[in-house]
Write a structure and sequence with these properties.
The protein is 38% helix and 27% strand. The chain has eight helices and 18 strands. Helix 1 (24-48) packs antiparallel against helix 2 (51-76) and helix 1 crosses helix 6. The longest helix has 30 residues, at 257-286. The protein is flat. The protein starts with a strand and ends in a 6-residue tail after the last helix.
Length: 388
């Protein structure tokens, strides 16, 4: 399936792409099972005619409608963009058409690809329309798309825009995601006097045979209360149904065996979600006792992730340190447009990596701000005698 359909004649550009994703197969399977449970809930609501049962069923029915809407959007939804002498126009269509506010040609500046980095190395991209108003327009590209294919589209759009505005510089600017260059320190680089960033949760400490970086988790009252509310709300509802299913709560009518087994299997995913919410609440309570450490001694690095098991990274033969953007960070939202480089650096997640002679990574301290990574690199260069 082509990424997009393009009609281009030099002074007009019309682009269409569909919202299809192969995850629709999983949603179909999930919706089939969910439908059985929702029909069962409908039967119970109709038979018992109780307000409490109706209120209990409403979130499940709403979830069914939400997933059904996602499936319809993946199968029939599409985005359409048009660029011509009047400016830029766009609309989203599925079972109906939603037209966005057009952008006049004089306000258009350029088109570019914007990268969104997620957890565990995931990446998604959006087509960004840069214009003179305060907030730029973003159009999400189907997940899993090749950024190079869409960069080619941006180049064509910028070519048309350059022709329409008679400004060839528009077509000459790069359209791909802007990535900061890594900062490399040879291990023989002399250390500088850099102070620990004032807002950093990391601290350094000298040991008799090495040094270490450590940080302690921070208790969040809002996070704890929010987690407690979700845990009690979800598990309270599920427990009421389970108690009724196993006959602990009084019931006027016994449940027939077929309905009992359907309800039993239908509730398993909700029980697992309840256990996950309970685990999240316990984690928020234990957060102040979680201490993450990176210890360096005897030509090795030992990483202890809070309550987890310690991992040893041999550093024999490390030749350089690199401060670079983390390959997998948790940025899910657009960064604000700003000219203040220091603010932008603190919004990115960086890492300090130890590299060998061939450039391979021996160990990497991740989830840092740029200033934290530079400070840590300076500490390593100052105390490097313990890991040489």
């Amino acid at each position: 399936m082509a990424a997009y359909h393009l009609e281009h004649d030099g002074t007009r550009c019309f682009v269409t792409w569909r919202h299809f994703s192969w995850s629709v197969l999983f949603l179909f399977f999930w919706l089939a099972i969910w439908t059985v449970g929702c029909v069962l809930l409908g039967k119970l609501v109709f038979v018992e005619r109780q307000l409490g049962m109706l209120l209990f069923a409403l979130p499940f029915w709403a979830g069914w409608l939400l997933v059904a809407g996602l499936i319809v959007n993946m199968l029939f939804g599409k985005t359409q963009l048009q660029l011509d002498a009047d400016g830029f126009a766009s609309d989203w269509s599925c079972l109906f058409v939603k037209t966005n506010k057009p952008i006049p040609l004089d306000d258009l500046r350029r088109f570019e690809i914007h990268e969104h980095r997620g957890s565990k190395g995931s990446r998604s991209y959006s087509l960004r329309v840069v214009h003179n108003e305060e907030k730029n327009a973003n159009y999400m590209i189907p997940h899993g798309s090749d950024a190079g294919v869409w960069e080619s589209l941006c180049e064509k759009l910028n070519g048309v825009l350059a022709t329409l505005k008679n400004d060839p510089k528009i077509a000459e600017e790069p359209v791909g995601p802007k990535k900061p260059e890594p900062i490399v320190f040879d291990r023989n680089t002399p250390a500088k006097e850099l102070e620990r960033p004032p807002l950093s949760s990391w601290n350094d400490e000298l040991d008799f045979d090495g040094f270490l970086f450590h940080k302690r988790g921070v208790f969040s009252l809002a996070g704890c209360l929010g987690s407690l509310f979700l845990c009690c709300f979800w598990n309270g509802i599920v427990s009421v149904v389970l108690l009724g299913l196993f006959g602990v709560l009084p019931s006027e009518k016994p449940i027939d065996p077929t309905t009992w087994w359907i309800a039993f299997f239908f509730l398993i995913p909700f029980e697992l979600i309840g256990l996950a919410l309970l685990g999240g609440f316990v984690q928020t309570l234990l957060e102040p006792f979680r201490v993450t450490k990176w210890a360096f001694r005897y030509a090795e690095a030992a990483f202890q992730p809070g309550f987890g098991r310690t991992t040893i990274f041999p550093l024999d033969g490390w030749k350089s340190l690199t401060v670079r953007l983390t390959p997998a960070d948790n940025e899910d939202e657009d960064k604000p447009d700003t000219d203040i480089a220091e603010m932008l650096d603190e919004l990115e997640l960086w890492e300090l990596a130890f590299l060998d002679r061939d450039g391979a990574t021996l160990a990497a301290i991740g989830e840092l701000s740029k200033s934290e990574a530079l400070w840590m690199a300076n500490v390593v260069l100052r105390e490097k005698r313990t890991i040489l």
